[in-house]
Amino acid sequence: MRVPPAVNVVLLVLGATAFYTYVGQLVPQSEVLPPEEIQIAADLTTDKMITIGERIAHGKGLCLTCHTLGQSGPLRFPDLAGIGARAGTRRPGMSDVEYLAQSLYEPDSFVVPGFNPGMPPIHKPPIGLTDEEILCVIAWLQSLGGEPTVTLQTMHPYRKQGG
Amino acid sequence: MKGGRDVKRWGWILAALVVLAGLAATVRVWQRLERGAFRPPVWAAQEEPPPRVQGLEDLTRAREEKLRSQPYEEAEYRQLGKLNSRVVVWVLAQLHLLFAAFVLAVPIFAFIIEAIGYATGDRRYDRLAHDFTKLLSVSFSLTATFGAFLTFMLVLLYPKFMNYLFYVFSPTLAPYVGLFFLEAIFLYTYYYGWGKFHPLVHLGLGLGLNIVGTAIMFIANAWLSFMMSPGGVSETGVVLSVWDAFANFTWMPINIHRLIANVAFGGSVAAAYGAWMFLHAHNDEERAHYDWMGYTGNFVATIAFLPLPFAGYWLASEIYNYNQALGIMMMGGAFRWLFIIQAVLIGMIFLAANYYLWVGMGRIEGERRYQGAIKYLLAAIALCFAVWVTPRAIVATGSEIRAMGGTFHPVLRWLGLMSAKNTAVNILILTTFISFVLYLRAGKRAASPRARLGDWVQATLIAAAAAYVIYLGVYGYFVEASIRIRFSVYMVLAVLIAIVGSLLINIVQLKGAMITAQPKWGKMPLFSQYVLIFIAVSFTWLMGLMGYVRSGLRQHWHVYGVMRDHSPDAYTPTLGYATKIVSVTVLLFFALIGFVFWLASLAGKKAWAPASEPVLEPAGGWTASESDGGH
Q1: How large is the ipTM?
Q2: At CB < 8 Å, which residues of chain A contact B?
Q3: What is the pTM of this model?
């Protein structure tokens, strides 16, 4: 019995669609939720700030979307491993906190040689971290090979300007 | 026999009436039972309503009183029953875009084919162009219907967001509506005026239709690209410059990308129509015509498909330039696996398109010269396909991950990087181009004494481009990102130079070439027609998938960085979920386009006549080539 072409066409459309749907189920499945809002208490210790800073870096701050931790080779953005130790020596006359703050508030003012500019200011939307959240991120960055010193009372040029 | 048929028909009608009467009686009894559920057992004339009815009236009154005491408030979101608002808008938007893409694409190549017919005086082109436009009028109505449906749903379900978009783009709304009217005027005059005007006037109508259609798309693209890369507004969303909002960062790349993609998609759907008609053809003449139609549609789709990855690079690079995090989220973040699915789709399309070209050489009787090359072309396509679908991180079990020392395979990880992907896609494009050139040369012998030299220059151009692409692909692993990122541009340029240069040589070589065998249109295996339909399904699915990533990239933002999404759907679903929605949309599209095909095919059918009367002459079989006024 000859199958009518229309039946073949319907089966083909269904089969091809089913095949692509199946391919879609084979890849890793994960939902991406909106970033969680983190409450920052006024009496936060530096150690707690590091923990919160790490959470922000992995979540709302999107830091690790572009940066890597402990990778080498042809990278798109500088690897963050050891940044706590390097930050104080990167630019003459700038402390590690000042350098890290500048990198976060005005990322294009200094671009690490070999890389292209491209990081957005993270105190503005769409990332839009608060001054306190940025201090926590600085604490975490300091902890990557350096000595964390910031507290929620630490002042830097951008914090004065920003509020 | 006739009497028997009548008895049978009346039997069916009687059975249907009995079923309907039974249903009506059941409903009536049910209503009675419902109303009388809480009545006292005695059927007495009562002034007061039964307790249940009274209770319901009290509830309604209380609800009304509560509503009256509340002030009116603007809603941020509304809900339509239990429907998922995002899915409703997603499916409607995709269906609207698919039909709009088709309606914008068909006039582009119909106009070009008509112009070729006019320039060459070959009336077959005119008939072909007219056949393509038969699909337009119903598709245009469906585009408008889905557009209106989408707008209603957006205003209903996302009122605050739509209010903001209207605020930003209010100056564009009236021109959009005006252009839509113009498009309707051009489209229907173009279609119904076929063969009724001087050919140049008709071509002018086609040109007008294309200009207006493109302008409409450019306006709509401003709205959607603004959502992804807003410009011309302050951080709080206040409009500073409508033009900057309109011509935002990704507007022009999306315009160009969509224009090319629409032509590729439209060509593939038109080819599917040709295939459908071929499969239902009644004689060799019809088969020959629809084989040619399918071939032309596929030719349009393939030619438009070749530069599409380059337009894609540009769009992606502008997304990176606008916001690096957005670009990395697309290629290396939540959506990175989506590009593996995309690679499967594009690989399948390339394989199918090449296969169709190779099978097409069979139309040219006695052509055996290039058959030996096919196995090498197939090997190159398969290799590039394999490289392109190789992800950087492998999906593996715990023991496999331990054996590899991580989620990255020690060897295959290098194929997951952009250097390898760019190399693979460029070689894939070159390979398809070679298949195309071989098809063009089949059945012809260059008459020029310098033909041999031309062959060598062509081969050298293609080989040099391939070598340069592979060199850059390998070198990309050893240089910094700031240098590597420019390599994709160099690769594209090399491939484009090879394609354009080689095509020009081919045109010169085949001018006045000796025809050794004419293509026998219609002499194609049936299977090849199903390949055309498969290509159309794959293109449609690809459009749906890439539409999802473009829109989904904003994640929890209605307008990226300006207006946050606070709805329950403000999260990025899994790719598995997204692909299911894409599939539903594709199936709905094909159900509807099947209806369009069927309507278009009615034009060639015989007019209805009662069985006892003689059959009338065909009423709908008019074609431009048969009419006096055709050109």
Answers
A1: 0.82
A2: 5-6, 8-9, 12-14, 16-18, 20-21, 23-35, 62, 65-66, 74-77, 114-116, 118-120, 124-128
A3: 0.82
